[in-house]
Amino acid sequence: MQVTETLAEGLKRELKVVIPASELASRLDTYLEDLKGKVQIKGFRPGKVPAAHLKRLYGRQATAELLNEMITETTRSAVQERNEKPALQPEIDLADDDAEAILTGGADIAFTMSYDILPEFEIIDFKTISIERPVVEIDDSEIDEQIAQIANNNKPFETKDGAAEDGDRVLMSYLGKLDGEPFEGGADENGQLVIGSKQFIPGFEEQLVGLKAGDEKTIEVSFPEDYPAKHLAGKPVTFDIVVKEVQSAGEVTIDDEFAKGLGLDSLDKLKEIVRGQIESQYGAMTRQKIKRQLLDKLDEHYQFDLPERLVASEFDGVWRQVEADMQNAGKSFEDEGSSEEETRAEYRKIAERRVRLGLVLSEVGDQNEIKVSDEEVQRALYDRVRQFPGQEKEVFEFYKSNPTALASLQAPIYEEKVVDYILELATVTDKTVSKEELMAEDEEEGASS
After folding, report:
1. Which candidate, 13, 231, 245, 425, has a CA 20 to 30 Å from the CA of 191?
2. Are 429 and 282 in the same domain?
């Protein structure tokens, strides 16, 4: 095997590789000799099939398989001997004309392999990083507010005589029509709606006021312009309503008996659970904020050349999502006050940031032997499966048989563990903030993922 470097520019590498035809021929002879004792061909005793006959029958297919194996082995070996780490699998350029000559044994195996290597950089002392952890102090009034909402959602309803009013619950059947024709998802034989809950299309609930059990009415409304179903967004529709029952809401006393009705021992236990839920919600937002701070600081510190193909791959994934979102929203770049060129440049920077931070976090994980256990991946897989009720078996089999998909579950776990490692070394100080400050969204949450 002869390897000649033809390009070494920045992170880009290109090698010309030549493998003598005799090596491929030797492997083919060995392959056919092994095949002779296994294959059964009519007219020949086992192990007595002439090599020339085997070559006529299986030679071309076997040569193609051996050629792929040799290219893969040689590519791996060439990179290892150079002590380089490719950012992605090297691209192989083997001309079609050359491939035909190689398969017929008339030429050496000559191909070009091109790849980007991973950049080298020093890991900083994470003790020099200072992070402010935003913390919200939970007031008892906030817990009481949440419990009041729970009580409101669990009000008892009783049948009433007379017309529906604000706060009443209406049990009904309805059939939605677009241009006089029923549309998918617009019908329900046992619908129910609390007037004033704002759960239906704007203008729908208000037209239920005054209706009584047995009343029929056709309601005219328009879907919002930003409605997710594009074929309905902004469109005027009608709903044929038949009122089955009108119910009025009863009063709820928030006490131990109310808590027991929810399956809890006492009101104090309910308050404890609600506090825990609020703490969990704020904790998730706090985690998001300090992770963003950390990634911002790492992004400020690290500036190095990036593997172009890795950035291109990341950008392609980001851009496909941008285009899909724009199409689903029925908007153009001009509607967003920009142009496609400006938007592409913006998301190119986001892709570069993600690649750069991904390389930094990966290097930190490698140097400190941070691993994701099989148990952690299994938990992530089961969590993912539970998101598809009724399709659990199919989803499970998909991930189990697809290494790339399974790796997509492992990657975020690995990233979080590396972030935890860095935060343990960094200087983290608490800062009390308001609920509004904590919940305010950054322009670009996340970074490397």
Report:
1. 231
2. yes
**pTM over cut 0.70:** yes
| CA–CA separation, 449 and 446 (whole Å) | 6
Mean pLDDT value of segment 214-239: 91
238 and 265 in a single domain? The answer is: no
Residue 306 domain-assigned (yes or no): yes
* CATH for 215: 3.10.50.40
Q: Are 232 and 183 within 8 A, CB to CB? A: yes
**Backbone dihedral angles phi then psi of residue 141, each to the nearest 5 degrees:** -65, -35
Tell which wins on pLDDT, 230 or 206: 206
In a domain, 138, yes or no: no
Same domain membership, residue 323 and residue 273: yes
The pair of structure tokens assigned to 224 is 């919002």
Cα–Cα distances in angstroms (integers) from residue 422 to residues 29, 268, 301, 376, in the given order: 56, 38, 14, 20
User: Which residue has tokens 């703490």?
Assistant: 279
Q: Give the residue with greater pLDDT, 443 vs 152.
A: 152
What's the full length of the chain, in residues?
449
- Distance from CA of residue 118 to its chain's centroid? 25
Q: What are residue 426's phi and psi, to 5 degrees? A: -70, 165
- According to the model, what pLDDT value does residue 336 have? 82
